[in-house]
Amino acid sequence: MIALAPGLSLLIQGLLEFAPLLAGLVKGRQTKAAGPTTLAAGANLPDLLAGVNTLAESAQADLDWAAQKRHQQQLAAFHRQTQLQLAAEQRATTLQWLETQGILANWPLWLYPSQLLASHPASGPLPLRIFLSLRGEFTVPNSPHSFAMETHLAQGLREFLSQHYPLQSATRPTEFLAGAWENQRFHSEASIKALFGTLQSEPTLVLESALDGQFLTLRVAYWGPGQATYYYKTLAQWSYPSLLKAAARAQALAWKTLRDQLLALGEDPATLEALASVPAANLEWLTKETFWQSQGVDLESLRLPYQIDATAVEWVGELLIRYHCLVAAWMADSYHLIYRDVPPLLPTLLPQLMAPEAETRLGQPELFTTLTHIARGYEQIYQALEAERRYWVPELALQFAQSLSQLPDPSLARQQLTLSLQAWLQLRQIEAATGDLLLDQVLGAATVSDRSYLADLQTCLAALADTQAVAQIQNQLDRLTPAPGDPASPRRSPLLRQGPGHLLQTFPGYSGRRASLAITPVGDQLVSSSLDQHLQVWGLPRGEPLKTLPGHHRPVSSLALSPDGQYLASSSQHCPKSKIRIWDWQTGKILHDHLGHRQSVRFVAMDARGRIVAGSGDKIKLWDIRTGKRLGTLSHLGSVHCLAITADGQTLATGCENGKIRLWRVNTGKALRTLKGHTGPIHALAFGADGETLYSASADQTLRVWHFTTGELIVTLKGHDAAVNAIALHTDRNLLISGGADTTVKFWRLDNWALQHTLSDQRGAITSLALSADGQFLASGSTDHTVKLWHL
Asked: What is the DSSP string of 441-484?
């Protein structure tokens, strides 16, 4: 829909240029790390350099090839240690003398150098520090106000990083410093050079956007610790008026969908037109433009008078957020892969970043081209790392293929699938064939220990609708199933025998969104949100697909079943507004829609009294399920991310993006108290059966247990290595179950708060958990687009 080819081509070119740079860094690191180091722990820099010179003279005089090789290895190790010592010396010298030499006069940040150089973590990995630089005024036509683009962009990037690359992460930490850049005074190459001269020892990423006249430009600067120079490149450039025009068109189409729904309910057309004058006028011009184009009229020289409002400018902000998140994830993955051997996370996040609504904004051809070159960039990194971690390649490529398998064009997924199969065969020193014979070769060489890889391969091929290949793999899995008493039996590993969690089924096609799983009260059916924007119902425990509930035209963001099993509520993201749809569970018919939310509905819940509670933005609205009548509205102090309601329907808890939890009296709407302690957004809440305990999960990687009637914090549970996204309570077994972005499901005892057991069979972040009422089945949904069903 949007002509973004020039901007995307620049982004693609930047990614392609950056990938060989990273590959070179990796190869250079491998060369330097070829041998063990013999450097004393407390060696100083002069002694270190003297040792290097002595060792070099010794190596030249020695004619023994074996000894010379050993000396060369030691030289490489000494050289690598020298770089680390130089970086440390550089940091110490900068801290002592920088501010006295007047460099601060040209410093582009509000923060002092000492605040950055002296803020290293006491333990754990060094985070990638990310700065946001934005220049230009994003004005709203016919309005005295400007759109707060920097605030909007920072919030979107902050939410993404806090969920997937949080500062507290033990694997992929990033430190996002929004508001640190002095935007208007310092920019472009001069500011990057000034920053690099001081922070050369620090891993740094600068995301720079500028609105100069008619063009919106995205640039990126990056360097790793001790890197000799910095990378600075223009990644994308758009015509800003063209973006606004595309936004007006998208706004018109969204209005058309909503208007048609309201007209079907009998609303007066004139009244509806008055409610949305701007999108209604734009829809009229869009209709004319579409008709003229269908008649072969060339409209290039014709400027149609589309009206631009704040919503259109916000739409441009959403586009910028997606690009910033994509680039930030790519650079963070590259940094942690090269310097800390951590596998990339972006492949599992691509479906979220390139969701269906993104396709309408970027255009399917541009989206496909972008992903093509991102895939090529990852392949170059994998090839460069192959000497050290060649066993990673098959699984990493397969993981990427699973992410790409949800696109309408399957060719990208097929390419990654072929790469995975070829790498798997190379590890076993089998010469890879071509075409369909690759799968036959893998199946012929697979053993019992390869069942996990084959199961993931089957899931990917199922998403690609390759039924013949799926059947081939299933036949091989059946042949490789050990006898029940065999220790190699995949049905229950030694770890699983020590705790709950026998894997029964894997369901493909899951959307990966939070709070989008539910099990019926009788435990015979599972409902989940699917990638095709519908709801899929599965039979339990065999996992047969029973029915599909269509009706949503945007991704389903949350769903809930009523305690009596009569109603299903689902919300979808009709950006910027949302609706809640109520279904008759037995018949699958749509009963009615709840309209009135002005922002995306993040979470819905239902109580035994026939009320539905939904949170969107900073508002919580209560509705009557049967009549569709709104019962009340509660106003929060921040964006609501999750909520929970007690079994008696008296108390409501809401979790906010600022880490605070607020408790409410439902009948009166009175705020009871605020619980403080979490340092990241709240992702999940659950009330205990005792009516006194509240459980919370947060992006700060912790779970907290509260006595909510007094506000007392009972205990903080730590064990996840990334954000905790979902929780469930198994009261019969006295367990708290949590799912995190670290791909694990953890079981905690409620009597002593000990971590009892961990499940780690999924390859993406756990986003949703659903527990059957009898406690026999647990469903876990993941960003790898699968739902795992466990027998507890």
From this structure: HHHHH--GGGHHHHHHHHHHHHHTT-HHHHHHHHHHHHHTPPPT
